[in-house]
Amino acid sequence: xSSATPSAPEASAGLFSRTKAIPAVxxxxxxxxxxxxxxxxxxxxxxxxxxxxxxxxxxxxxxxxIGQTLVILTAGIDLAVGAICVLxxxxxxxLVLLGYDPLLSMLFAVFxxxxxxxxxxxxxxxxxxxxxxxxxxxxxxLTAALRLISKGGAFPVQDxxxxxxxxxxxxxxxxxxxxxxxxxxxxxxxxxxxNETRWGRHLYAIGNNPEAARLVGxxxxxxxxxxxxLAGLIYGLTAWLALGRxxxxxxxxxxxxxxxxxxxxxxxxxxLFGGRGGLVGTLxxxxxxxVLRNGLTLAGIDPLWQDLVTGILxxxxxxxxxxxxxxx
Length: 328
Fold this sequence. Notes:
Blueprint: H1 8-20, H2 25-41, H3 48-73, H4 81-97, H5 102-126, H6 131-149, E1 155-156, E2 168-171, E3 174-177, H7 178-196, H8 198-208, H9 210-215, H10 220-245, E4 248-249, H11 257-267, H12 279-298, H13 303-327
Antiparallel strand pairs: 1-4, 2-3
Helix pairs in contact: 2-12, 3-7, 3-10, 3-11, 3-12, 4-5, 4-6, 4-10, 5-6, 5-10, 7-8, 7-10, 11-12, 11-13
C-alpha cells in the first residue's frame, strides 16, 4: 500500500524548490552569513550603535539602487548614478550659498537630475543607443562640468532644510535619521509601481523581450523614457539625502556609487539581462554592501581592498545569474 506522506528526501527537495522560487531568499542568506562572520570576528559589530551606523551608511547607495533597479530591469545599465546625484548636491548647495530659497534650490536641483535622466532615456529610446554608452558619456560630461562649476573643490552646505534628512530620532537603543525613513518610503512607492500596476508589469515584459512587448501593444519607447526620467528623479532625491548624511558638496564624491549600486541590484537577485528581479532583493543587496564595508572597516581593512571585494561580488553574482539562465 502506498502512503500519501512524502518521504524525507522528497520533502526536502520540495522545500528546496520552493525556497529557490523566492528570489530574496538567497540574498537574505548571504546577508545573514556576513553578519555571522563579522559578529564572530568583532564583538562591536552587533552593538546597536554600529547597526544604526550601517543603516545610515546604506541610505545613499540604497536609494540610488532603486533607480538602478528600474534601469537594469529593462536590460540596461546606468553608469551615471553617482554623477547625477552629485549634480544635485552641487547645484542645491551653490544656489543656497548665492542666497536662493533652500526649498526652491533643492527642487531645481531635483529637476536638473530628472532632466539628465530624461535626456539619457531619450537617447536610449529614440535613437536606440546602447545604455552603457549613453550613461558612460553622461558620466564623463557631468564629472567635468561639476568640477568646473565647483572649481574643483568641495564646499560646506550649512542649511537646516538641506540637512533635514540627517536629523536623528531614537527607536529604543537605535538612533535613526529621517533619511532612513525617506529611503524606505521610496522603496515602498516604487515597489507598488512595479508589482501592483500595469506600468510595472509592462516594464518586466520589456525587460524579458522588448520586441514581443511591442507586438502586444506596449509602448516600449515611452516606457524606457519614463524609466530613465524616474531614475533621474530618484537620484535627485538621493542628493537631498546625501546632504543630510554629509553636509558637504564635493564634485569628487560618490566615486564608487556606480559599482555599489550595481552590486546591490545584482546581489539582490535582479538579472543584468532584464525582466527578472525586484526591489526587496535590492534593499537586501544594499544592506549586504553596507554590512560588508562596515565589517571590513571594523577589521581595519584598507578601503581599496573593500572595493576589490565588492568587484568580486559583482562578478560572482553575474556569473551565478548567467548559469541560472542557461539551466532554465
